[in-house]
Amino acid sequence: MKSNTLKRVFYPASFFVLLLAIIYKADTANYNFAFHVVGMIPYGDKIAHAVLYGIMVYLLNYGFNGKRWLRIELGSVIVFGFALIEEVSQLYFPSRSFDWFDLLADAIGIVAVTMVYRMGKEK
Prior knowledge:
single chain, two-stranded antiparallel ribbon, mainly alpha
């Protein structure tokens, strides 16, 4: 496997594992220091949503080399689908709650970073 191909798989997969760990800790109400720090920042939760999902979009679009589906980057579509599923799944956890603004923050991060990714590909 070529080094570039390895990076295109390893980077998004590694970050996805980190994202799953964060979601697991939040779903089980197993908060750590980072959760408390983010909670002290005004709108820190929303900022974290936008940043985390934005990073995931960039890495996945990089992994797919900008491949598109219906003129939208495939990585962006996948990450938004995952964000939607993850937010809806919170209805089934007593320590969590569905929040439209979390989903909006996810979407803002996804769209903003998709635009940054596109500008980088054009150069």
